[in-house]
Amino acid sequence: MKFTVLSLFPDFIHSYFACSIAARGVNKGLLRYDAVDIRDFAHDVHRSCDDAPYGGGAGMVMKPDVLAEALHAVAAVGKRVVYPTPSGRPLSSAVIAELATERELFFVCGRYEGIDQRVLDRYVTDEISIGDYVIASGELAAMVIIDGVMRRVPGVISGESLQQESFEQGLLEYPHYTRPEEWDGERVPEVLLSGHHAKIEEWRFRKSVEKTLRVRPELLEQDRLEAAGLSAENRRTVMKILDSGGRDGLGKDD
Ligand code: SAM
Description:
By secondary structure, the protein is an alpha/beta fold. It is about 40% helix and about 15% strand. The protein folds into 2 domains: about 1-160, Alpha/beta knot (3-Layer(aba) Sandwich), CATH 3.40.1280.10; about 165-245, tRNA(m1g37)methyltransferase, domain 2 (Trp Operon Repressor, Chain A, Orthogonal Bundle). S-adenosylmethionine binds near residues 85 and 131.
């Protein structure tokens, strides 16, 4: 899969792809990326990419002519072009899964007040928000989206890791423990030491339900769980856990 990122600060993107899982994906040939400096398409000696907003007001706006040239130069026209913006549709596991079906994605990173609306209208296919807050940088938002997408590219991480995660079937993930068995007076829950796989699965499922109830109770609505792909049998188990005191017994360990 290829990511082409148009940015005023391409070093952010280079540093992302130089580390950890993304770097391994690149080395294995599973991921490719291009970090394009928007300033290379500026028209004046100062390499200006922004100008004052029509109508007045605070801040600067990224110029349409410069951005359009950059988008044409990387052959993004007619392709899937993402603009991360707080006013976009909310990022979710489903949005990431959908983007991950593409072979190539383009990102335009905003700065200042954002980019000229005419560029959005003509070239951008997806406006995506990483949350209900404003950060200074489209690069960080693009990296959040890329990070979610690239780990779904087959071979980048193990398929099992993906299935066992928060949101995959509508629930938040169960807690994890590792060695030592006892740390500072606190023991790992006995069931995890038992080697009894069915009991471990049952315990993890219950912990997932309890965590979801505590932190994101709205996710436990039956129609949401169904839409997220949780089986009818597991949805019945969720109801049983809730009815049998899951609502009261939260956080108590076995
Ligand atoms: N004036 C914009 C607004 O109120 O919606 C905020 C501009 S912000 C300071 C600069 C850039 O950061 C945006 O163009 C966008 O690319 C990125 N950005 C900021 N918050 C974001 C968010 N929650 N999701 C996605 N991108 C975001």
